[in-house]
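Exercise 7b. Backbone tokens:
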């Protein structure tokens, strides 16, 4: 069974009963960049594709302004693959139940750069640290993550694009953070 089938067949938590479809990923699996979001939203559950809701569209627009395109340049996934009811935050037990899927994605893809969007995806890789402490800093996941990998991707913590929907001045901060992609990949 391949990873997409595993995710589609997963019944490790109650979220599968509340969603239409688990959303495994989208974008180029062979790219150097992986973006991790927390969970699908209602519209994404309906369309069976991540990043199609307002904040996802904003992030896609920012990345395109920086000349990064989903089909070629990056890969998008969520910590939990099923939409939590009422678009609530994923619970710790749901994250634990879905985490083997994400680790398999990371291990199979072997990205050079992992961009985490907000606290859930960041704390999945770096527990007990706040995103504000790590914003503007790059680090290797194998140096601090509890999961041992056979490679060392760089991690970049970025504010969730929904922040910019409520506070438009944050869009430039997110764009500035994402503009570091080139800098990170050139150091590799």
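Sequence design result:
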């Amino acid at each position: 069974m391949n990873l997409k089938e595993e995710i589609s067949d997963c019944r490790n938590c109650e979220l599968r009963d509340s969603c239409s479809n688990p959303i495994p990923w989208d974008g180029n699996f062979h790219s150097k960049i992986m973006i991790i979001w927390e969970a699908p939203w209602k519209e994404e559950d309906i369309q069976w594709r991540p990043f199609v809701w307002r904040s996802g569209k904003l992030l896609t627009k920012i990345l395109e302004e920086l000349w990064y395109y989903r089909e070629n340049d990056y890969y998008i996934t969520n910590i939990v693959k099923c939409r939590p009811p009422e678009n609530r935050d994923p619970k710790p037990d749901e994250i634990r139940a879905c985490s083997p899927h994400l680790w398999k994605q990371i291990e199979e893809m072997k990205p050079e750069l992992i961009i985490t969007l907000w606290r859930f995806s960041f704390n999945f890789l770096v527990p007990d640290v706040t995103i504000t402490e790590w914003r503007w800093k790059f680090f290797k996941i194998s140096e601090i993550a509890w999961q041992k990998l056979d490679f060392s991707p760089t991690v970049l913590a970025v504010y969730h694009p929904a922040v910019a929907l409520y506070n438009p001045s944050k869009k430039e901060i997110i764009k500035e953070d994402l503009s570091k992609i080139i800098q990170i990949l050139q150091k590799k």
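Instructor comment: The radius of gyration is 15 Å. Residues 140 and 154 are 5 Å apart (CA to CA).
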